[in-house]
């Protein structure tokens, strides 16, 4: 059995896929009995393919010819972005070819339309590489946990953010200097805004939410907060209280509604997610039958992403000419739960004048809104005549806390808007 | 599309599968468009099914009638043990039905024969539940990482052992009292020998090795050491040196050979495996393309195991009448690498008389065999006139260390055989 593969896009990931298909072709054939053969590569610039021996492979710039070639059974879209990626994917699906993509942004915006095209044509659209790179999390969620209602997903889904937060935690650095180093090392994207503002995580959050609840949800409905406001002081105070700060995608089923959001979160230091350091990703999934599971690995990078792309190709190839398996069905679009209803603990960093009655006024206002305090840190150190007052609340309703903070932040002795972080 | 399921075995796991198929039938149908219908349950004793509403399900004691029934497309073997489980599985496969089993012992001894019967009949034999319960590790290894040569697998695969070692670590208990409590709580099997002697881990190690290297290996070739000789002192000394003790299945490709063994191992405390506590399981897999990945969850228990069984059923059901995908191929049987060739660091607990020249004599003998010492702990506390001398070696060849220890353990002042543990 043989399966011809055409790769559109010869950049970082495309090159990694080409490399894997060439180097591990024998292994795949031995283990599965299927010859997965790279037949075509298309890109406007194929210079970075010079390192490979592509004898017998058609290399060119014509993606449409690649899609139309009868020797190509599986089309890999690895150029990224909206267009022409979307057009190529739809053309391939409409030509009766299964498609593998790593294009998380396209999927976050147009996933349902693309999935529908695959179903209509009786082929598959696979995108393991779109979330958490080398970690087979899509497969785990869709297939491995198919018996489960998903109660909760917590995802560390952006390696750049986790790298920055790890260095801030373990090396005592400030956000800005860590970011500069990450950019200088070519580690973060340039510009790094999609990463550090949380939007890359939101794209993946949207995909995981859609999969977990078999429903279409709007990317723009997901509340997103990045890590740019996290200071080394926050990291240090959190540690003092027994927590690490991680940028999490949090997805939950609550009272029949779906909650999905992206935000920096205090994770207890003995939670497995706290042990996920540097550029690694991890996804914690709790199902009603399997209970807690966690998946960990490299969420980005040429080869880990290629591993996911090629796994999708092999899955399709092992099927041969047989019809595609019953597709996962997406129900009608659903709205997300209002985050104000969220009930949990919160970390508050208040910047206050160091004068009598401050703590009393603050705690009274919080108490008026039903928010009670679990613990408190105040140091003598002053910054511009202000001090940090760190409060950890007991379980409280987010909207009540926000009302209290609106009043508190209006007080004379408050130096800047209170920084609020959720606690896992 | 509908798929009839017959469950043989109505015990703990069988009951969990029945419960899941009944409670989450709607979810599975919604998400996949496939009706997975429980049609039959067979066991000699079906009393524990009384809690379920089995209207429309044929319940009886005749497994052969279940297998023969044309309404049954997938047969689940959940009675465990060798016979009649093996006969039922072969009969079902030969009748052209796919089989799902959780029977790790049967697979460890007869896996290749059973897989061959599935291939010969063009059906599937799936066994996600046989290793690490609710963690979809078989799927991750076979499908999710299909592009990878597997360099290393480290598995915490027995919940009872990990629970005992965790309590010894965090509560300072001795092995015997922790085990007694685990048995009293119904947590450990009775008798617990298969668990604590490492054989249960060895069964899973054999299955993972066969999958990772697509080859048949002999269960009896895997060196197995349980946790019965681990004392609280070992746990405490290891922590002092920055390690936790975990019972690991270690599977590696070394110089074209395969290494597989089960033994208590010192894991650095900042390794993710060290954060796997209590009854949880985890499998760390390093591939040549994806690099490091880790999978974590509940390795046993009624519902986590049922989650894995039902996921296998859904995978088969989604295929409908289409032929089974290309099966994973097993190459000819291979021998395991001689463990004497192992190169690594070792923890040694020597029990010596507290007299002049002891440390000198021991280190000289170790040095004669090329073994050098990285660190050392000796406390003043005596036990029956002996003291513990704890040595951590630098990287060394295991056979050289064993030769040195044979000479050392013969010395007059050595009170008992030196306890050796490997270091990750």
Give a description of the structure.
2 copies of one chain form a homodimer. By secondary structure, chain A is an alpha/beta fold. The first copy, chain A, has 3 domains: 2-133 and 302-319, NAD(P)-binding Rossmann-like Domain (Rossmann fold), CATH 3.40.50; 137-298, Dihydrodipicolinate Reductase, domain 2; 339-423, 2-Layer Sandwich (Alpha-Beta Plaits), CATH 3.30.70.260. Helix content of chain A is 36%, strand content 26%. Chain A is built from 14 helices and 16 strands. Chain A has helices at 12-23, 25-32, 63-68, 85-94, 104-120, 137-144, 159-171, 175-184, 193-196, 199-213, 232-240, 302-319, 358-368, 398-409, and strands spanning 2-8, 35-42, 58-60, 74-77, 98-101, 125-126, 150-156, 243-254, 257-268, 280-287, 291-298, 343-353, 373-378, 386-393, 396-397, 414-423. In chain A, helix 4 packs parallel to helix 5 (104-120), helix 7 (159-171) packs across helix 8 (175-184) and helix 13 (358-368) runs antiparallel to helix 14 (398-409). The longest helix of chain A is centred in the C-terminal third of the chain and has 18 residues, at 302-319. In chain A, 51% of the residues are buried. At the A-B interface, helix 2, helix 6, strand 11 and helix 12 of A face helix 2, helix 6, strand 11 and helix 12 of B.
């Amino acid at each position: 059995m043989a399966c011809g593969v055409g790769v559109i896009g010869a950049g970082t990931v495309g090159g990694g896929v080409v490399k894997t298909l060439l180097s591990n072709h024998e292994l795949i054939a031995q283990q599965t009995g299927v010859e997965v053969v790279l037949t075509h590569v298309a890109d406007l610039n194929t210079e970075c393919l010079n390192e490979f021996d592509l004898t017998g492979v058609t290399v060119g710039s014509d993606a449409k010819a690649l899609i139309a070639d009868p020797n190509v059974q599986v089309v890999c879209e690895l150029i990224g972005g909206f267009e022409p990626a979307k057009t190529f994917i739809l053309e391939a699906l409409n030509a009766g070819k299964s498609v593998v993509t790593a294009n998380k942004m396209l999927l976050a915006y147009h996933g349902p339309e693309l999935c529908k095209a695959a179903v209509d044509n009786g082929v598959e659209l696979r995108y393991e590489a779109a979330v958490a790179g080398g970690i087979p999390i899509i497969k785990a969620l869709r297939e491995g946990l198919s018996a489960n209602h998903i109660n909760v997903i917590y995802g560390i889904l952006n390696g750049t953010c986790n790298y920055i937060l790890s260095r801030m935690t373990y090396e005592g650095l400030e956000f800005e200097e860590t970011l500069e180093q990450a950019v200088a090392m070519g580690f973060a994207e340039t510009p790094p805004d999609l990463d550090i503002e949380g939007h890359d995580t939101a794209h993946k959050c949207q995909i995981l939410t859609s999969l977990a609840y078999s429903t279409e949800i709007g990317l723009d409905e997901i509340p997103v907060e990045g890590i740019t406001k996290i200071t080394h002081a926050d990291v240090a105070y959190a540690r003092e209280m027994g927590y690490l700060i991680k940028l999490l995608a949090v997805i939950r089923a609550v009272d029949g509604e779906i909650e999905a959001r992206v935000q920096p979160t205090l994770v207890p230091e003995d939670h497995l997610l706290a042990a996920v350091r540097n550029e690694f990703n991890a996804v914690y999934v709790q199902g009603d039958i399997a209970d807690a599971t966690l998946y960990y690995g490299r969420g980005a990078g040429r080869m880990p992403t290629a591993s996911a792309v090629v796994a999708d190709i092999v899955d399709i190839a092992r099927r041969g000419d047989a019809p595609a398996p019953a597709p996962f069905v997406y129900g009608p679009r659903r709205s997300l739960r209002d985050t104000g209803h969220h009930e949990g603990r919160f970390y508050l960093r208040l910047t206050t004048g160091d004068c009598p009655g401050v703590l009393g006024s603050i705690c009274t206002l919080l108490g008026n809104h039903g928010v009670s305090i679990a613990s408190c840190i105040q140091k003598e150190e002053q910054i511009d005549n202000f001090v940090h007052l760190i409060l950890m609340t007991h379980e409280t309703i987010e909207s009540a806390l926000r009302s209290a903070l609106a009043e508190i932040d209006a007080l004379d002795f408050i130096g800047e808007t209170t920084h609020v972080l959720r606690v896992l």
